[in-house]
């Protein structure tokens, strides 16, 4: 990016901007798994809007529906009024997602972001149980507003709150202690009246911690966690903001563990097209809100309802996308296994189309991302000290595009480590 090109961003935009520092160019157009900058250079996208673009940039099926809706003067801003677009979304969500999975969930539109959904979920759990404490997990990330930050693990992000983040207690995530029974401490503390741990309203968990470093919870651990909560009358919240909508293969990331959370948060790709939208799903008996007790001006983003409905109908009426995602995930796993075998201090982990390359020397991850960018690929770092290169391509990426991106990633690792 030249000085002239970057002047307005540096002069007017806050220092808080982040991704533009890692990818110093000005993007102009995008299609599928590709972005193009204003100079005509193409970049393959293994970032996918931090998981908000599971169906790619400007997906033609979703774009056509959106254009037709806008040209027809469809409602844009609707608060929580009943609209045709919302009705179609709810009917499609029910018929393609909830009923086939036997899920008796009510649907709340809390506001347009994942943090909005998390805030509403925590608020509802406390209202229903009458209890304040919440248990979260090491390395968790749930958003940047105060409630979401309180259940987030990263110290730097928490420090930005500027006020005490209270009524939460972190517990070790699966694999954090390297123990055979990672839930032993939680059970012991909950059942011991002298542990000093008050009975919580809820436990909030990600089945795969994306921002935390692509930490993958075992299905058995998730089942044991669900049973621990059920037996003690604690609500289980699964934050599926980044890992839902097929990122790990099934529509919900918790499906493979065979559990049914009490509350589920969705955002990012639930809107289909990258338009802001979020949902909170919860068991019917938990729907104890009074009318208007939790609201938000932009919870009725009807254009997002349109693209969300078409995405569900187009991609989730059968299991084709799920099967393709799992196959592509195996393709990534095989490619990264070769990288890990070639270099000491490098390992990999992941599920479906979220994978991480983990470096014992954290400084190497950022260097790999920089080399990848120079070679036309967008990837970001994650983890407590940015020690992980996270791969998050669109689910609709072609095999050829996936292989091309993997060639760049493995070449970047070779350049940095070799």
UniProtKB/TrEMBL annotation:
Record InterPro entries: Aminotrans_3, Aminotrans_3_PPA_site, Dat, Ectoine_EctB, PyrdxlP-dep_Trfase, PyrdxlP-dep_Trfase_major, PyrdxlP-dep_Trfase_small
Annotated CDD domains: OAT_like
Any Pfam family hit: Aminotran_3
GO MF: diaminobutyrate-2-oxoglutarate transaminase activity
Keyword terms of this UniProt record: Aminotransferase, Pyridoxal phosphate, Transferase
Keyword Transferase: yes
Pathway: Amine and polyamine biosynthesis; ectoine biosynthesis; L-ectoine from L-aspartate 4-semialdehyde: step 1/3
Cofactor(s) named in the record: pyridoxal 5'-phosphate
EC class: transferase
EC number: 2.6.1.76
Family designation: Belongs to the class-III pyridoxal-phosphate-dependent aminotransferase family.
Family matches, as NCBIfam families: dat (TIGR00709), ectoine_ectB (TIGR02407), PRK09264.1 (NF006733)
Protein name: Diaminobutyrate--2-oxoglutarate transaminase
Native organism: Nocardia xishanensis
Taxonomy of the source species: Bacteria, Bacillati, Actinomycetota, Actinomycetes, Mycobacteriales
């Amino acid at each position: 990016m030249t000085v002239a090109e970057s002047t307005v961003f540096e002069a007017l935009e806050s220092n808080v901007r982040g991704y533009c520092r890692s990818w110093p160019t000005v993007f102009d157009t995008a299609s599928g798994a590709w972005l193009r900058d204003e100079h005509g250079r193409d970049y393959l996208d293994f970032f996918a809007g931090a998981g908000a673009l599971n169906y790619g940039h400007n997906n033609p099926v979703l774009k056509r529906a959106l254009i037709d809706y806008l040209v027809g003067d469809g409602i844009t801003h609707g608060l929580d009024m009943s609209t045709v677009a919302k009705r179609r979304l709810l009917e499609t969500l029910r018929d393609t997602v909830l009923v086939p999975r036997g899920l008796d969930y009510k649907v709340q539109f809390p506001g347009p972001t994942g943090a909005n959904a998390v805030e509403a979920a925590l608020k509802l759990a406390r209202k229903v149980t009458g209890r304040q404490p919440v248990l979260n997990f090491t390395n968790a990330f749930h958003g940047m507003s105060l409630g979401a930050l309180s259940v987030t693990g990263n110290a730097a992000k928490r420090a930005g709150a500027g006020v005490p983040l209270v009524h939460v207690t972190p517990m070790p995530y699966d694999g954090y202690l390297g123990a055979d029974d990672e839930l032993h401490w939680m059970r012991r503390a909950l059942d011991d009246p002298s542990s000093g741990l008050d009975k919580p309203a809820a436990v909030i968990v990600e089945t795969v911690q994306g921002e935390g470093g692509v930490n993958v919870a075992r299905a058995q651990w998730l089942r044991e966690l669900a049973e621990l909560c059920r037996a003690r009358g604690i609500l289980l919240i699964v934050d599926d903001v980044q890992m839902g909508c097929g990122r790990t293969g099934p529509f919900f990331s918790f499906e493979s563990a065979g559990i049914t959370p009490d509350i589920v948060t969705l955002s990012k790709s639930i809107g289909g097209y990258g338009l802001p939208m979020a949902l909170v799903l919860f068991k019917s008996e938990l729907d104890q809100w009074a009318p208007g007790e939790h609201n938000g001006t932009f919870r009725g983003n009807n254009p997002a309802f349109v693209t969300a409905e078409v995405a569900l109908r187009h991609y989730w009426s059968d299991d084709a996308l799920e099967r393709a995602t799992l196959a592509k995930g195996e393709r990534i796993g095989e490619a990264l296994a070769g990288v890990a075998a070639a270099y000491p201090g490098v390992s990999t982990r992941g599920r479906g189309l979220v994978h991480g390359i983990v470096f014992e020397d954290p400084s190497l991850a950022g260097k790999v991302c920089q080399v990848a960018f120079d070679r036309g690929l967008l990837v970001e770092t994650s983890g407590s000290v940015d020690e992980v290169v996270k791969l998050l391509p669109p689910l609709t990426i072609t095999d050829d595009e996936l292989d091309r991106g993997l060639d760049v990633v493995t070449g970047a690792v070779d350049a940095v480590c070799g």
